[in-house]
């Protein structure tokens, strides 16, 4: 999803355009990986002195609800990224740097047979580990 599309979605749903919201969306568009609210706060503080964690979380939650961003939980913390809307796929997610790799096989093809009498409303499939870059150069925490 592009930043302009995301801003249009906000407007269509009755939410105001703000500079902060545009900066948030640009951050996730440019990052193209899962990032945390802390990462976003660190990015925004120089431009928006005194911005609160509450403002960050409120907007991230809104964007997640409107399906502008998608979220996952890594290491006990919620991470967000710009929603992929190209086609149906799943992700490998690096637990260190948050980079993702698309997985084009959907396990629901196999699982649906086991759930024939159930109504499936949606699914999410993610694989977690470390990308080649993080394996070769582990971060020092």
UniProtKB/TrEMBL annotation:
Gene3D superfamilies: 3.30.1490.190, Winged helix-like DNA-binding domain superfamily/Winged helix DNA-binding domain. Fe cation binds at residues 88, 109, 123. This is Fur family zinc uptake regulator. One of its GO terms (molecular function) is transcription cis-regulatory region binding. Pfam families: FUR. Belongs to the Fur family. Zn(2+) binds at residues 94, 97, 131, 134. PANTHER family: FERRIC UPTAKE REGULATION PROTEIN (PTHR33202:SF1), ZINC UPTAKE REGULATION PROTEIN (PTHR33202). Its main location: cytoplasm. It comes from the Bacteria. The keyword Iron applies. Binds 1 zinc ion per subunit. Keywords: Cytoplasm, DNA-binding, Iron, Metal-binding, Repressor, Transcription, Transcription regulation, Zinc. It is found in: Cytoplasm. One of its GO terms (biological process) is regulation of secondary metabolite biosynthetic process. Its cofactor is Zn(2+); Mn(2+); Fe(2+). SUPFAM superfamilies: Winged helix' DNA-binding domain. The keyword Transmembrane helix does not apply. One of its GO terms (cellular component) is cytoplasm.
